[in-house]
């Protein structure tokens, strides 16, 4: 079955390759597990990549590299014969290859041959224990490198090919010694089972010389990193006779239109100046682009829902060989991988390949690979599109905030299909029925998508279907229940709900816990109403009955006081509390009584130094006082002194930021 898939794939991409060799073919969709350790990749192949149908995984460079905490130290090789790197040892590499193959997943190794180590700030002992200095490595010495110079002019091909990228020693790829050294490395990895190679910085190697290296290595399946930029002397088309090339224009074009109008993406391909489909490796972002190395302008995981939709488009649209980027969260663009596990159990990893929509679209691409055309295109003239892939699959992408409801021609045979983008598993959501004439009705929420294909047909639930859910169950735990588990109820598709009784106080807080054992828990790190896995505790100083609602697809949640008319009144602040001597500086939640008008009744005793402030979250992080006693609040302003006695209505207008005290 595996063999059939690969042959079919190679043929459909128009590659003139036989079916005899499993490794010598492009596939359907692969993932770059950036900076993952070999042992963790092996497990990921078994539990996720294989079952979800990923065709291959691109691994970080396996060769020995210079020391230092940065991710890019791995792009500074020291030896091709010592294979101990930040990701593990040679034995672990071999074990990973074997385990991934057993799971039906190929391995593509990143190969850095053009530029060699120069960064010595963390010493001259490399990842495998070898010592080195620039132009002087365990197996190579000065004569194996071009003369010392730094690339300074992309308008001059000789400069781009023969000088050092960022000043790094530039391998003399015209010398047969150097060529043999690289070819032997490729042959060694091939013998270990590696199925293909990403040739890093191929743009900086003369095409004829790279071709010779590949010939000496018996032409393993490879793709070449050549960044196309107009006006430069070296262009991707000079390399496509050797192997497919990374098409950097693709991610830029997709990002530009997801930020513009995706109806334009109907024709994406050679007419846009992109390489022919069978020569193009495509990606929404890669490890450089997501952090602005080698240019930016792409969508990244930081764009969240738009990035999700762009990946869905890439995996649905018949152009190129798509690569899903999967890396870790960062703010510092040099930062190396997070400490601890290099896998999705560690919340520091983004794990894009596990996003339910992306993972399920891999199944779509596998099933539709034989129908290499766009059919039954529909758009609304703006940011809602839909298209089919022959009679194999159909996708609807809504890049607008409003819902989409359309009855569309799918081109698919009649039947009940799973909407593979409605839940975690392909068939965990409601079914979509294609009528005998090929028409089907789609209801797609804002910034969401729907997809159906013949490989995910259900047993036919169209009425009284089980509700869609990503989590099997969900609990809320907090100070209000002594951190025990309170089960939430699935009340609508992807919507969990329960009512909890809060007692107030600035240390009152809660979290969400899927299994009730903290193994998969959620908080809200930046207080934006969207949960993060293992995020920070959610503070709320309110008291009384609150309705907690969680959407397990978007991870949006809300905590709303029961009976409080929150939808009737608008406000700038999400909550507001009164804190002062009158309540011992505890939090008295204020209620919205009109648009922008918060109110609470306070009993003042007129004590000397009687004073108060207003606090948004109950933790003083955003509080308001009054610096000049003009009844207009300033953030972090001075305490408000008052000598009133008795019961007063305290009001705040959160638009004008005025406040008032009115005797009862
Ligand atoms: C690091 C430090 C540098 C230091 C250097 C030498 O950051 O300050 O001078 O080491 O000690 C990665 C990082 C680099 C890092 C390098 C080596 O991105 O920051 O340098 O590793 O550790 C060009 C190339 C293209 C390359 C991009 C980044 O053409 O091949 O630059 N991409 C690959 C990898 C990178 C890797 C390397 C190559 C090096 O994907 O991760 O670098 O092995 C225009 C041109 C492009 C050009 C681009 C940026 O767009 O058209 O061709 O890309 O500008 O210069
Ligand atoms: Ca070079």
From TrEMBL:
According to its UniProt entry, this protein's organism is Simiduia curdlanivorans
Which InterPro entries has this protein been placed in?
Answer: A-amylase/branching_C, A-amylase_C, Alpha_amylase, GH, GH13_cat_dom, Glyco_hydro_b, Ig-like_fold
Top EC class per UniProt?
hydrolase
Leader sequence segment:
1-26
What are the UniProt keywords, alphabetically? Calcium, Carbohydrate metabolism, Glycosidase, Hydrolase, Metal-binding, Signal
Return the CDD domains for the record.
AmyAc_bac_euk_AmyA
Domain (Alpha-amylase C-terminal): residue spans on this chain: 375-457
* Entry keyword annotation includes Metal-binding: yes
Task: Using the record's annotation, list all stretches that form the Glycosyl hydrolase family 13 catalytic domain.
Answer: 28-365
Enzyme Commission number(s): 3.2.1.1
This protein's cofactor list reads: Ca(2+)
Whether Signal counts among this entry's keywords is: yes
- Gene3D superfamilies assigned: Glycosidases (3.20.20.80), Golgi alpha-mannosidase II (2.60.40.1180), Immunoglobulins (2.60.40.10)
Name by which UniProt lists this protein? Alpha-amylase
Q: What family, per the record?
A: Belongs to the glycosyl hydrolase 13 family.
Q: Catalytic activity, per the record?
A: Endohydrolysis of (1->4)-alpha-D-glucosidic linkages in polysaccharides containing three or more (1->4)-alpha-linked D-glucose units
């Amino acid at each position: 079955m595996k063999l059939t898939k690969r042959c079919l794939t190679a043929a459909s991409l128009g590659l003139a390759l036989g079916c005899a060799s499993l490794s010598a073919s492009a596939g359907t969709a692969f993932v770059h597990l950036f900076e993952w350790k070999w042992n963790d990749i092996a497990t990921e192949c078994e539990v996720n990549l294989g079952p979800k149908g990923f065709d291959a995984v691109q691994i970080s460079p396996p060769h020995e590299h210079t020391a230092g905490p940065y991710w890019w130290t791995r792009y500074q090789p020291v030896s091709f014969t010592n294979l101990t790197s930040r990701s593990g040892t040679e034995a672990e590499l071999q074990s990973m290859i074997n385990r991934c193959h057993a799971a039906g997943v190929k391995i593509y190794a990143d190969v850095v041959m053009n530029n060699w180590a120069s960064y010595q700030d963390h010493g001259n002992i490399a990842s495998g224990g070898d010592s080195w200095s620039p132009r002087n490595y365990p197996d190579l010495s000065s004569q194996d490198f071009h003369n010392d110079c730094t690339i300074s002019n992309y308008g001059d091909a000789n400069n781009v090919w023969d000088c050092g990228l960022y000043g790094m020693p530039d391998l003399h790829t015209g010398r047969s010694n150097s060529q043999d050294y690289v070819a032997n490395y490729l042959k060694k990895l091939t013998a270990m089972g590696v199925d293909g190679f990403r040739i890093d910085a191929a743009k900086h190697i003369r095409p004829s010389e790279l071709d010779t290296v590949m010939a000496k290595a018996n032409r393993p399946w490879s793709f070449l990193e050549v960044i196309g930029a107009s006006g430069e002397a070296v262009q991707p088309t000079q390399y496509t006779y050797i192997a497919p090339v990374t098409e950097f224009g693709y991610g830029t074009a997709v990002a530009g239109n997801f930020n513009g109008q995706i109806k334009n993406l109907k024709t994406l391909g050679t007419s846009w100046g992109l390489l022919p489909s069978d020569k193009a490796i495509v990606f929404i972002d890669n490890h450089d682009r997501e952090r602005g190395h080698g240019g930016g302008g792409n969508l990244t995981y930081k764009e969240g829902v738009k990035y999700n939709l762009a990946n869905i488009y890439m995996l649905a649209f018949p152009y190129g060989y798509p690569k899903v980027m999967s890396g870790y969260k960062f703010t510092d663009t040099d930062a190396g991988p997070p400490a601890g596990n290099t896998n999705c159990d560690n919340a520091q990893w983004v794990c894009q390949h596990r996003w339910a929509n992306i993972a399920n679209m891999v199944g779509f691409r596998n099933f539709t690979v034989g129908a290499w055309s766009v059919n039954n295109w529909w758009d609304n003239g703006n940011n809602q599109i839909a298209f089919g892939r022959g009679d194999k699959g159909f996708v609807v992408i809504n890049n607008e905030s409003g819902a989409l409801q359309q009855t569309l021609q799918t081109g698919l045979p009649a039947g009940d299909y799973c909407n593979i983008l409605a839940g975690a598993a392909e068939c965990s959501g409601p079914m979509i029925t294609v009528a005998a004439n090929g028409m089907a009705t789609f209801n797609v929420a804002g910034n969401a998508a729907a997809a159906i294909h013949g490989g995910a047909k259900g047993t036919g639930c169209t009425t009284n279907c089980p509700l869609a859910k990503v989590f099997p169950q969900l609990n809320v735990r907090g100070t209000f229940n002594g951190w025990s588990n309170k089960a939430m109820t699935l009340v609508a598709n992807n919507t969990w709900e329960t009512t909890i009784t809060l007692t107030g106080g600035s240390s009152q807080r809660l979290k969400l816990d899927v299994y009730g054992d903290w193994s998969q828990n959620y908080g809200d790190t930046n207080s934006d109403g969207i949960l993060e896995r293992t995020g920070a505790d959610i503070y709320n100083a309110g008291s009384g009955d609150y309705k907690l609602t969680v959407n397990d697809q978007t991870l949006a949640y809300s905590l709303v006081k029961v009976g409080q008319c929150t939808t009737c009144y608008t406000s700038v602040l999400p909550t507001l509390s009164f804190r002062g001597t009158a309540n011992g500086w505890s939090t008295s939640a204020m209620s919205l009584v009109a648009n922008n008008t918060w109110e609470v009744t306070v009993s003042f005793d007129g004590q000397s130094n009687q004073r108060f402030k207003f606090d948004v979250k109950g933790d003083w992080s955003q509080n308001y006082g009054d610096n000049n006693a003009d009844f207009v609040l300033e953030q972090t302003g001075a305490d408000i002194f008052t000598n009133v006695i008795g019961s007063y209505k305290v009001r705040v207008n959160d638009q004008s930021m005025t406040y008032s005290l009115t005797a009862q």
